[in-house]
Amino acid sequence: MSQPMRPHRVVVIGSGFGGLFATKSLRRADVEVTLVSRTNHHLFQPLLYQLATGILSEGEIASPTRMLVKDQSNVTVQLGEVTSIDLADRTVISVHRGHTALIGYDSLIVSAGARQSYFGNDHFAEHAPGLKTIDDALELRGRILTAFDQAELTADPTEREKLLTFVVVGAGPTGVELAGQIAGLAHRTLVGAYQNFDTRDARILLLDAASDVLPRLGGDLGAEAAEALERVGVEIRLGTTVEDIDADGVTVKDGRGERHTIAASCKIWSAGVVASPLGEQLAQQSAAAVDSIGRIEVQPDLTLPGHPNVFVVGDMMTRDGLPSVAQLAIQSGRYAARQIAAEAKVAPRGKGLPDRTPFRYRDKGAMAIISRFNAVARIGKIELHGWLAWMLWIAVHIVNVVGFRSRIAILLAWMWMLLGSWRGHLTVTDQQITARNVLHQVRQAEPAPLPPDGHPGHPGIPVTGASPLQKE
After folding, report:
1. pTM value?
2. pLDDT tens digits, residue range 301-335?
3. How far is CA 398 from CA 56, 61, 332, 405, in A?
């Protein structure tokens, strides 16, 4: 007697835009989905800078992944950092707090995202955190507000000047939005909150080696953004490369080749990203090409060469110069899910698999907010700036936030800030400022996990969700 076929097993790596939207798109498909994620939440990363500057709370821009898919009966959420993918055995290894799991798959969607890149200078991270996670944002909030608090305590004008100098490295959307909001804190929200100095004396510098602000938006909008930033008190230094960062400041080289040091207590890095190291693993096993920031060159259907069941989406993939933005992750995640669902539907009936239409990205434009009532946006050939672009920015972000309650909470928070100067989340703790470096030290001190034994190549670990198509 033949055994009944088990459902098609899909493993999704990552709960960001690509992973979450792929998972939700498989809601009605005849598949079983295992969503593996390092964190227990889906993060609306474009608003992280507002968490860092006290406008929003973490609960308003992040939702527990299990709650987002709890009504989806074909999904299992599993916490863990994927450390290995074996394309030949169709298995994924994930580790979480000492627990190692081996998961089998029929189809795989890899959406592990990107992390901050310091271009080979990883020691910069100790003094200039990036902005990729909730922990990063809370640490930056602590560093920014603590700088103002310490400036109140010192009587040394040189020390106070250093404390009130904020350096943001990178003039892309994150850097521009961060610099603008720090200026908003200093020139609006915190005015009158300190007795021994005027917060409007704060100096906010935006540095970049490029020749334009917001280069993806084009020269005209970049120039408009630069002028808007300067109007709110941000100093912009383009053609400037960072050579060193330490506790006391930033050493830079300007366009003339001259080196000098900017004394600054608070430094923030938003100058570059690199794809998840899983990309290198996949490339080595599939002979796929990898670009300079670790993204995999995928096939027209977003799969790996020779592995039509492995999709790479979002920030981890590259093709035809597609931009690494949230919309790409959403669209590519949904596309991969549609291909899997369609093929899972016909496979049990013995029918031939349907042809795959190549992935086509629909560019919905790019935008960045500068300050209150001021933004820049490009939609196709249309360029907007000022009030209209700002209204469009609000509408787009509210529509894309996951969860009705989060949308309402964010709108209320923005209303309070716009009508007055209030920011409802300016509380900081010492733990927020120090936890990241302490955790990093603890992880470095931990022994490496022992190689598992029992399974072919990975013994002792039961294969979770082994599928009927997996090698015996």
Report:
1. 0.90
2. 999 999 999 999 999 999 999 999 999 999 999 99
3. 13, 11, 21, 11
Average confidence (pLDDT) over 124-138: 94
| C-alpha–C-alpha distance, residues 465 and 254, integer Å | 56
> Which one is catalytic: 32, 177, 224, 343?
177
C-alpha to C-alpha distance for 380 and 375, rounded to whole angstroms: 17
What are the E-state strand segments in 226-365?
Answer: 234-238, 241-246, 249-253, 259-263, 266-269, 273-275, 296-297, 303-304, 307-312, 317-318
Tens-place pLDDT, residues 143-178: 999 999 999 999 999 999 999 999 999 999 999 999
DSSP structure class, residue 199 = G
CA-CA distance, 216 to 214, in Å (whole number)?
6
* Cα–Cα distances in angstroms (integers) from residue 69 to residues 45, 104, 302, in the given order: 19, 21, 24
**Strands across the sheet with 303-304, in order?**
75-79, 31-37, 8-13, 107-110, 307-312, 303-304
Q: Residue 177 catalytic?
A: yes
Tell me how crowded residue 94 is: count the other CB atoms within 10 A of its CB.
Answer: 24
> What percentage of the chain reaches a pLDDT higher than 70?
90
pLDDT on residue 449: 52
Residue 277 pLDDT exceeds 50: yes
Cα separation, 133 vs 307, whole angstroms = 31
Cα distance between residue 44 and residue 80, in whole Å: 20
